[in-house]
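anyone else get weird line breaks when pasting these?? whatever heres mine. first is seq + tokens for prot A
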Amino acid sequence: MTKSLRSPLVLAAVLAAGVFCFAQDGAATYKAKCAMCHGPTGTPSAGMAKAMGIKPASDPSMQALKVADIEAAVKSGKGKMKPVAGLSDAQVKDVAAFFKTLK
């Protein structure tokens, strides 16, 4: 393999590994801090959706949110959702990015 071909392949492998770790961290944080209200797959239970006004991740208004919007909601709360305590900035960023993957 030539050196010019190896560099892009190495870069792609490193990026893929980083994205995989990023997704795992966000998924773990989501499971621990968010799934009890938003549902394990981004679809809240009917009771929780009604009581708290939570829309599923598949809702067009939720799909339109940017990662920064989700980060702000996690940090500051939104509507009936209180801020999520005990998360580092990195965890907030990871969980917001993970939430965007839910359909």
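and prot B, same format (seq, then tokens)
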Amino acid sequence: MKVGHLMTTDVITIGRDASLKEAARRMIDAGVSGLVVTDDDGALDGVITEADFVKTESDRRATKRARLLRWFSSEEGFPSTERHVADVMTADVVTLGPDADHAEAARVMRKAGIKRIPIVDDQSKLLGIVSRSDILRAFARPDADVLKEIREHVMGKVLWIDPKRVEVSSDEGNVTLSGRLETKSDATLLEDLAKRVDGVVSVKTALTWEVDNTKLEMVSPPPGRHRPNL
């Protein structure tokens, strides 16, 4: 599933020139742990999270993050030299385009150790944000929906495979394909396309075929027979 269909478009943002106090207040009011920083044109500028607040007060290591946010948002004890979002935000942000699929987003999150990814267009304008919970929704697709898409769309409309030739089952997104097809290429394509169906975690095949058309080779014409002019 494309992240453009999973992302949240109602994103709470803040400008780079806003104070840390304002950023903390917005996080607390919205109940979120981070904000997307954008410029006046709506282009992505960076992100600011609870961790950024913690880094600014490293000497207060025993302070809980939520408590630190409230300290920043209060009038009492706020630093005399007020800092701004641009001073502490992360500018080097991992992003994806709306056409990226949920599996790619999951890999990026795991590799980068992040919980959310801003989704931007070709001009880096913010379109939305996708979180771990959004990705989980795609992986949690019911088996009945997975089976229906494989049978009706992949087999019926894309590959034109007789559904009687293949038995398809799914257990928590783990798909099994068994049966006998006309060609090996049909079996290979069915397995590859089934892996791309939203909600599929793995694909196990026990498919056989009548013809291994992947090994067919071009041979020279018999003696006396000329190749046609193309």
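btw re prot B: Residues 87 and 161 are 59 Å apart (CA to CA). Strands lie at 13-14, 34-38, 44-49, 116-120, 126-131, 166-171, 174-183, 202-211.
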